[in-house]
Amino acid sequence: MSKSPHILSTSSNLLGFCLVVLTSIKVFGKSARTIIDEIDALAILFFIISCILSFLSMRSLAERGRKLEQVAEYIFLGGLILLLVMTVLFVIESFS
Fold first, then answer.
1. CB 7 within 8 A of CB 73
2. Which of 23, 37, 88, 92 is the most buried (most CB within 10 A)?
3. Tell me: the pLDDT tens digits for 30-68?
């Protein structure tokens, strides 16, 4: 059972979320005081790469597709971890 369609759709949704967060940070002038925007930019990069790899895995032959899917899955997990770190920092910043 292929996970690539799920990775692609979820990565693209989280990519949009991260872009909204980055835009909000820039608009409200918070980027100079926190590192949240740098972490968010890195998460954006992870989700873009995950989207591309999951798309390529759906378009590739079986063995290569499985390898691309596995790499996309790990990069997606890295993006989720970055979102977790970003959220924790955002909560800490909110209470400071």
1. yes
2. 37
3. 777 789 999 999 999 999 999 999 999 999 888 999 999
